[in-house]
Design goal:
576 residues; mainly beta; 10-stranded mixed sheet; 5-stranded antiparallel sheet; elongated
Length: 576
């Protein structure tokens, strides 16, 4: 009787413990699309190869010794794959980066069968130059990073049969220096980059399938690493994912155990380069790949695991502690081998892209969770703050964004992932300055984050200039917000004298300000100054102009041209 009571109390306490860490909502995914590939797609990479958003896919086709590019159409659909590009034998992992600094994304591929790494320099149109090969003994995986702090991309390559990792320091022109080798555990099959000791220098984590361990290589910052620290993992650790799973500010490691009844191991980081003993969590059979993201928007990192033996993807919802909730399984194609995370349907939620190695296809699983209080912006909701007209935006322009759940606190606005300076934040309206970094781009992806929750992205065109004139009624039409020569406010009751100087204010003149011309009442006016106002109001351009001779009295139209851009119609000046 006493033992029964103890078991009941223990069970009740367990229920209370679980209930205390239940997430805000359950992760949910629905099938979106399936795309055929070449033989044996074993890995994929995600990137913008056409300056389009959402991103495109590159698939490593192990059975065809090639990679193929799938150009995104948006919403999880893709055009027919571009012609496959040859690599070495048995390509295992594909990575992306701009290795020759021409602004175009390139590819690197670890070819296990031929003992090489392929470098395919991009042409910017979805095609690549013939491969350049680097010798690499049994390369099982690779990652891209800057390991010596020179601003150039380097490679770290794991070698499964030599029990080592090689560092190839990039020269910035598509070539690499001789490899530097570092010993790790036995049978390294995957590699990831992160900072395990908080010194700001990239370190490496390596999953060693034969010695059942994870190696940590602490970076020195000059392209070399300290002697590997080895920590026990589960049986046959394969791919790994990094993240702060228990929210203590230190990097942890999650790794799939391939030859097992179906488990992953979590190794909590101590913040000094060491890892704690592994904690085991059940998933599907023969887990082969793992990624981390917050799939249910509760602020805790979750895991997605590809179960090659079960033709499923397992989702383990994180609790922000050292534990995950029991896995939820979603059916995919045969032999899932790799998972990518991207927002392919532009709704602000992380979706899954799964490479099915045995059914020769890519599965798109759309995130189906309902995000509480998710910010919302829609087409035509980003407007020039002066003209209130949507369309192209220019670097340095003040824009107003309308929507819902945008603020009023803990708000960020991102243009192509670059934070924008904020001038005003309300619940349904935000004013921001377009970052100068969008200059030279054709489009910008705008996202509003509120309390860490992102809106769906909105893609808008970018121009060198997109001028708008501020008006007295803040409506974008009617009386211009202008000063007379004596610095009094221009109005119908206080018109400017014929031939006098007036001061106009606008935004969207570009950075730097492009050539400015002004017409008043249809006649060219002399521009005396165009640039930042004396009090340097961010994003605002001041134009001092002399009224041309022979114009009418009363409200006369004023138009400002900046480069190829023209200000909105319907703006007037008051003239005597």
């Amino acid at each position: 009787m006493l033992e029964t009571w103890r078991r009941s109390i223990k069970g009740a306490l367990g229920l209370l413990a679980v209930s205390a860490i239940l997430p805000a909502q359950t992760a949910s995914f629905i099938f979106k699309n399936e795309v055929s590939t070449g033989a044996n797609p074993v890995s994929l990479a995600i990137g913008n190869f056409f300056d389009n958003i959402p991103a495109d896919l590159v698939v490593a086709q192990g059975g065809a010794a090639s990679v193929a590019l799938l150009r995104s159409q948006g919403q999880g659909f893709f055009f027919q794959p571009f012609p496959s590009q040859g690599t070495g034998k048995d390509p295992r992992v594909v990575g992306t980066g701009d290795f020759n600094r021409d602004g175009i994304l390139d590819l690197v591929v670890a070819n296990f069968g031929s003992g090489t790494v392929s470098l395919l320099l991009g042409n910017g149109n979805g095609t690549f130059r013939p491969q350049l090969t680097l010798d690499a003994l049994s390369p099982s995986s690779l990652v891209v990073g800057d390991f010596n702090g020179d601003g150039l991309l380097d490679l770290a390559v794991s070698h499964q049969t030599s029990n080592s990792v090689s560092i190839l320091l990039g020269n910035g022109n598509g070539t690499f220096r001789a490899a530097l080798d570092f010993a790790v555990g036995v049978g390294p099959v995957s590699i990831a980059v992160g900072d395990f000791n908080g010194d700001g220098i990239p370190d490496l984590a390596v999953a060693n399938s034969t010695s059942n361990s994870v190696s940590i290589l602490l970076g020195i910052g000059n392209g070399t690493f300290r002697t590997a620290l080895n920590f026990a993992a589960g049986r046959t650790p394969a791919y790994l994912a990094l993240g702060d799973f228990n929210r203590d500010g230190m990097l942890d490691v999650a790794v799939v155990n391939y030859i097992s009844a179906g488990t992953i191991s979590l190794l909590i980081g101590n913040g000094n380069g060491s890892l704690q003993a592994p904690l085991s969590f059940a998933v599907g059979p023969n887990p082969s790949f793992i990624v981390a993201a917050d799939f249910n928007f509760d602020g805790n990192l979750d895991l997605a695991v590809a179960n090659t033996g079960g033709d499923t993807v397992s989702i383990l919802m994180g609790t922000g502690t050292r534990a995950f909730l029991p896995h939820l399984d979603f059916t995919v194609g045969k032999g899932p081998a790799w998972i990518g995370v991207t927002d392919f349907d532009a709704d602000g939620k992380p979706d899954l892209v799964v490479a099915n190695s045995l059914s020769n296809s890519i599965f798109m699983l759309a995130n189906n969770v309902t995000v509480p209080n998710q910010p919302s912006i829609t087409d035509h909701s980003v407007v020039n703050a002066a003209s209130f007209i949507d369309g192209s935006v220019a670097p340095g322009e003040v824009v107003t964004i309308f929507g819902s759940n945008l603020g009023p606190t803990q708000t960020r606005v991102l243009f192509n992932s670059i934070p924008a300076p904020l001038l005003y934040v309300g619940k349904d309206q935000v004013s921001a300055i377009v970052p100068n970094e969008v200059a030279g781009q054709t489009t910008a992806q705008v996202v509003v984050e509120h309390s860490g929750v992102p809106s769906g992205p909105l893609t808008i065109p970018v121009a060198a200039s997109a001028p708008g004139l501020f008006t007295a009624t803040a409506s974008g039409r009617g009386q211009a917000a202008a000063l007379n020569e004596d610095l009094s406010i221009n109005s119908a009751a206080n018109p400017a004298a014929q031939g006098s100087i007036v001061v106009l204010y606008g935004t969207g003149a570009g950075q730097p300000v492009l050539p400015v011309s002004v017409t008043i009442d249809g006649k060219g006016a002399k521009v005396l100054y165009a640039g930042a106002p004396g009090d340097a109001v961010a994003g605002v351009t001041q134009v001092n102009v002399q009224l041309p001779d022979g114009i009418h009295s009363g409200a006369v139209p004023v138009v400002v041209r900046v480069g190829a851009g023209v200000s909105q119609p319907g703006v007037t000046l008051a003239v005597q």
